[in-house]
Amino acid sequence: MHCGPEGIYIAALGNREGKGPGGVFLMDHETFDVRGQWEMDRGPQHFAYDAWWHLGHDTLVTSEWGTPDTLENGLIPEVLLGAKYGRRLHFWNLHKRKHLQTIDFGNKSQLVFELRPAHDPTKAYGFVNCVISLENLSSSVWTWYKDGDKWAVKKVIEIPAEPATEDELPPLLKGFKAVPPLATDIDLSMGDKFLYVASWGTGDLQQYDVSDPFKPKLTGKVRIGGIVSRATHPGAKNGALSGGPQMVAISRDGRHVYLSVLDHLALSERLRGNS
Fold first, then answer.
1. What is the Cα–Cα distance from 3 to 17, expressed in whole angstroms?
2. What CA dihedral angle connects 55, 127, 130 and 93, to 10 degrees?
3. Which of 144, 157, 16, 130 is closest to 90 using CA atoms?
4. Most CB atoms closer than 10 Å: which of 36, 76, 139, 236?
5. 254/216 Cα distance (integer angstroms)
6. How far apart (Å, rounded) are the C-alpha atoms in residues 87 and 78?
7. How do residues 70-92 score in pLDDT, each as one tens digit?
8. What does the alpha-carbon distance between residue 119 and residue 43 come to, in Å, rounded to a whole number?
9. How far apart are CA 269 and CA 158, in angstroms?
10. Helix/strand/coil (H/E/C) assignment for every residue in the chain
11. Could you tell me the pTM of the whole model?
12. Rounded to 5 degrees, what angle do the CA atoms 245, 249, 259 make?
């Protein structure tokens, strides 16, 4: 949710039946009453996930996951491996609430998630993470940017999967003999200098210098948990972790990084259909 020029913007995955389309609805700033659907002209957009904007460029950006009936009980392997989750970015005219452009990441890319636009209001670029590639199980981060009158994207970070034995992996991954990074979240520092990437699968929290948004440089990494490694937090004494860094946030002064840890066992059980 974001406080915007017309109300509180809420990103929604689907409708009340758990189907599509997903999108954005508005709530009143004062009363919190639901004011209704934001989109006036949806165009081809169907899946939804995150929503952010470039106010100075009158542009709203939305990303994609899936409808509630395909994820509320956990990711469905057939949907994921069939490339039927979201893989597109959508660009909108913020004032007219009109769909302008779609960028498709290709059928090997799944789960185009977190939108992190530049904080500098004069800049027309931002970052988005793709959780998994069906080609090689890698995760990636892409920069979106204004290219003339259109928007474009460029892959600027690719995080590879790591080899693992079958007995170390949950059922869905055994045949791949690798653990994917599963970069589930990213966050951009207030000065637009550092981008943090939470790789939930391998357990890595990575810091990149993105002063040049098209040429990130890895400047730090710490391993916390992971499907296979289960590394403990460097400052903790509580032994192996059964989860990994899933969501990440940076303090406004840039001095602290906060993250949540999601248990991998819960994912394994859901993929087996036991929850």
1. 26
2. 20
3. 144
4. 139
5. 18
6. 16
7. 998 888 889 999 999 999 999 99
8. 28
9. 28
10. CEECCCCEEEEECCCCCCCCCCEEEEECCCCCCEEEECCCECCCCCCCCCEEEEHHHCEEEECECCCHHHCCCCCCHHHHHCCCCCCEEEEEECCCCEEEEEEECCCCEEEEEEEEECCCCCCCEEEEEEEEECCCCCEEEEEEEEECCEEEEEEEEEECCEECCHHHCCHHHHCCCEECCCEEEEEECCCCCEEEEEECCCCEEEEEECCCCCCCEEEEEEECECCCCCECCCCCCCCCCCEEEEEEEECCCCCCEEEEEEEHHHHHHHHCCCC
11. 0.92
12. 25
Q: Write the pLDDT tens digit of every residue in 262-272.
A: 886 555 554 44
Residue 65 tokens read as 């996951």
Q: How many CA atoms lie within 13 Å of 96's alpha carbon, on the beta-carbon side? A: 10
Q: What is the mean pLDDT of the segment spanning 148-166?
A: 95
The token pair that represents 173 in the structure block: 């991954």
Distances (CA, A) of 221 to 85, 138, 162, 203, 235: 29, 17, 15, 10, 14
- CATH numbers and ranges of domains, the chain: 2-271 (2.130.10.10)
